[in-house]
Design brief:
The structure is a homodimer of 201-residue chains.
Chain A: H1 8-18, H2 25-37, H3 40-56, E1 58-59, E2 66-67, H4 73-76, E3 81-88, H5 91-100, E4 105-109, H6 127-135, E5 141-144, H7 150-163, E6 169-172, H8 188-196
Parallel strand pairs in A: 3-4, 3-5, 5-6
Antiparallel strand pairs in A: 1-2
Helix pairs in contact in A: 1-2
C-alpha cells in the first residue's frame, strides 16, 4: 500500500471532496467517511441532489439568476415591480437581498465583476444583457448593488456610465456603519463613506 | 417566494451539504454553488464517487477496516506480521498508523469506544470479533491504540482484562510529550504520563 490507506472508492471520494473550495484534505476525509457511514438511501439522495442541481438548473434568460426553468420565479412573478432592476454580481447576492423583504423589483445577475487583474473584462460579465433590458424600455431605476470593494466600485461606475444615455435613474446602495456597529471599531474607509452619505433626520 | 431564494434543486443540494458534519448553512451554500458551476462531467464524477464509495465499500471480514472486497489489502498481504494485532477505534486511525511505516502487523477496528454516557456498551463495538481472532491462535501481541482519553483508556483496560486468559502480550502505545514539543507548554496529564513512562537511555 503506497500512499492510499483506504479502498480506492473512498480515496476517490476524498479527492472529490478535497477539490471543493475551502475543503482541505482532513475535512474531505471526514466528509467521505460520513458518506460511507450513511444509509444507502441517504447516499443515493445526496448523489441524486448533485446530478439534479447540475442538470435541472439553468440561468433565467432575462435576469441570469439561477432558475429551474427558462424564466426564474422573480422575473415571472406578476407582483414584482418591473420598473426597477437591481444589479448584483452573484446569485447569492439575490438571495441576500430577497431575505430583507425590502425589495420588490427585478434583478440582473452579472456573474462576476470587472477585474483587469484577473483578466475579467466587461465582455466577460453580463453587462450587454443589462443594457438591452434597459434599452427595451419600461425601466425607471437601476440599483447597482455590487460589493463596495475596488472591483465592485469600478463595475458600478462602468455600468452607470454605460446607462447614462438611456436617462434612467441609476443608484447605488448606501454604504456606512453596519447596524449594531460601533463608531470606535469602524474602519476609516467605512466611516468616510458614512460621513459622505449622511442624511437629514 | 417564502424562504427559498434558489431553485428547488439548488435548495435541495444545499440541504444535503448542510447535513454533513461540520458544514454550516453558509458553507453548504458555497459548496452547492460550486457544484452548479462545475462542468457536467465533473458533477457526474462527484455523484458517481458518492454512489461508488457507498455501494462498493464494505468492511473487511477479518479486521473490520474499510475494504473494497471481503478482505482488506492489509489482511490479505503476505508480507504483514500475523502475530501482531493493533486495535484502533476508527479506520482513520489505521491510516494514521500506516503513514508512519513503522508497523507491519495486522489491525482490528472497533468502530467506536466504550462510552456509558453515549450508551455505547462493549457489545456495540467489535470486541467479540477481536476475542475470537485471538482465541483462534497465532497472535502473540495485541497493541491497544485507542485514544488516550477517558473512553479510549477505559476501552483499552476492558479489552486488556478480556484478553488476559489467552496469555498473549497486551501492550498500549506510549503516551508522552509529542516530538518537537516543549516541557513548559505540556499539560500536566501528558507530563505525568511522560514521567511514568520514562525509559533508560
Amino acid at each position: 500500500m503506497p500512499n492510499s490507506f483506504f479502498p480506492a472508492p473512498v480515496e476517490n471520494l476524498i479527492d472529490q471532496f478535497a477539490r471543493l473550495p475551502g475543503v482541505g484534505r482532513k475535512t474531505a476525509q471526514r466528509l467521505a467517511f460520513h458518506i460511507v457511514g450513511m444509509s444507502d438511501e441517504e447516499a443515493e439522495a445526496f448523489a441524486a441532489a448533485i446530478t439534479a442541481a447540475k442538470s435541472r438548473v439553468t440561468f433565467c434568460k432575462t435576469c441570469l439568476n439561477l432558475s429551474a426553468g427558462d424564466t426564474c420565479p422573480i422575473c415571472s412573478s406578476p407582483t414584482r415591480d418591473r420598473s426597477q432592476i437591481c444589479v448584483v454580481s452573484d446569485p447569492k447576492d439575490v438571495a441576500a437581498i430577497e431575505r430583507t423583504s425590502e425589495y420588490r423589483g427585478l434583478y440582473h445577475v452579472l456573474h462576476g465583476v470587472i477585474s483587469p487583474l484577473n483578466h475579467v473584462s466587461p465582455d466577460d460579465i453580463h453587462v450587454k444583457e443589462l443594457v438591452s433590458r434597459v434599452s427595451a424600455g419600461g425601466v425607471q431605476e437601476v440599483i447597482l448593488a455590487t460589493d463596495p470593494d475596488t472591483e465592485g466600485e469600478a463595475t458600478a461606475l462602468y455600468i452607470a456610465r454605460l446607462l447614462r444615455p438611456f436617462g434612467v435613474r441609476v443608484t447605488r446602495l448606501a454604504y456606512g456603519i453596519p447596524m449594531g456597529g460601533h463608531l470606535e471599531f469602524t474602519d476609516e474607509l467605512t466611516l468616510g463613506r458614512a460621513l459622505e452619505g449622511r442624511r437629514d433626520i
